[in-house]
Amino acid sequence: MRQVLFILCFMSTLLGMAQNGPIRENIKKGNTIESTVYHDNGKVAQHGYFNMANDLDGAWISYDVSGEIMAQGNYREGKRIGTWYFYNTEEINQVHYQDGLIMQVNRLAKKDTRVVSQFE
Predict the structure, then answer these.
(1) Three-class SS of residue 82?
(2) Which strands form 79-87's sheet, in the order they lie side by side?
(3) Model's pTM, two decimal places?
């Protein structure tokens, strides 16, 4: 009987932990909602904005569990727009969107680490 109770308690604890989901913080700022989602380790997973219709709207950045940027770009009324950058270990994918549709993809190698600046 004790084993059965132990197993039931253990299973209910596991189910309870599985239902928690990501930690999310939303702050209303005028007509937008600033949203930050956190990984289990406390680091930011995603940061961006929603409009009052609950559509992604504005700048959005996604991070991996170590805090490195994985993707960044902009939304308008739930659709990706403009230039987005998707990062991985080998390359950066530069994707151009128009009204949520992919218009062009450029793959940039991460081999060139020079810093270039222009002074006037």
Answers:
(1) strand
(2) 23-29, 32-38, 44-51, 56-63, 69-76, 79-87, 91-98, 101-109
(3) 0.71
Amino acid at 117: S
**Residues 64, 119: Cα–Cα separation, whole Å:** 34
DSSP assigned state of 43: S
Backbone angles phi and psi of 102, in degrees to 5: -75, 125
pLDDT band at 93 (very low <50, low <70, confident <90, very high): very high
Burial of 48 (0-12, 13-18, 19+ CB in 10 A): buried
- Residue ranges per domain, the chain? 22-109
> Using CA atoms, how far apart are residues 43 and 75, in angstroms rounded to an integer?
23
The whole-angstrom separation of Cα 52 and Cα 21 is: 23
Check: CATH 2.20.110.10 for 22-109?
yes
